[in-house]
Design a protein that fits this description.
Elements (H helix, E strand, L loop, with lengths): L6 E6 L8 H12 L8 E6 L9 H4 L4 E3 L10 H6 L5 E3 L10 H6 L3 E3 L5 H17 L1 H17 L20 E5 L3 H12 L3 E5 L13 E2 L2 H7 L2 E4 L13 H5 L5 E5 L8 H9 L3 E6 L12 H4 L3 E3 L8 H19 L9
Parallel strand pairs: 1-2, 1-3, 3-4, 4-5, 6-7, 6-9, 7-8, 9-10, 10-11, 11-12
Helix pairs in contact: 1-12, 5-7
Amino acid sequence: MNNKPTLTIFQGIPELADLSYDDMVTEWKNQLARHLEIGDYHIYPLKGRMLADRYQAEIGDSDAVIGPWINPDYLSEPFFQLHPNVRYISDLGHGYESFDIDLTRKYNVTICNTPYGSNMIAQYAMALLLNICHDVSLHSQYSKSGYWEGKEQGSSRSYRQVLLPQIELYDKTIGILGLGNIGLCMANMAASMGMHVIAHSRSIKTGPQYDFIDQVSLEELLERSDIISIHCPHTPQTHHMINKETLSQMKTGVILINTARGDIIDEDALYDALEERKVYKAGLDVLTKEPPALQIPLMKSPYTYITSHIAWQSRTSRLRAVKMAVDNYVSYLHGNISHRIN
């Protein structure tokens, strides 16, 4: 008789040019084959938001589920009643929505996340910031074609024409909202560029890796920062943390970066602050509604750079997520829980 724990995996369809669903399934099989303590498993494509009454047949009597999006609609009493054997649930990402922690503890279920792409997401946040500071694509286009087209038309503009103000980050102060894995990576990148790093998080972080960071109150961070980069989870406490009031406390000309969750920002208030030039520019990889039902005002602003929640989307990081998720589950089986969020 096989008493090994059974596992159900939900794998989303990658939207990458260099990674397919079949590639992901192959990686799952390779990683799972390394661990004989894992029993039967099944891998299913994940399509759309998971709710308590969806994928019932796929989960069945499984002991563990990896891959669902952690949200209150999913982690509900009906779900746990439908699947009494489930004792371990993990998503495949950093972020998660608020959920009923007491309910998960009532049913003795361990909930974990998979923070696989801290460096990648921080790198993307830095890319948004550097794009605001330099707009390399715009200047490349000018050098490759715009200058020559202008020359043919008799323009006297220099080949070295600077089309937008260039911003030097050295000696600037960056405020990190949320000093988890991603926030710390962003802080290290900023410090390596000669920036002063201040941060605000739910609790004071201790350890030598944080010694270079000045941990301050939210109010002080808003007042001192030339750049604010958001890396905190979306919770009831952080919902619309960036709003009309907090925007008014910021320096005039502040740059705002968000690769965390769209709901942390009141988008109407940000649009107004951009139009009033309180905020110089904003780099956003996340929005309140994804995908948006219509072209929101921020998308029409000349002061924003917006991408479609792709900061985590590299082949390397997606494959790393599989290995980390499997390793985390095996650690749980051996009594050493990693990245628990309940």
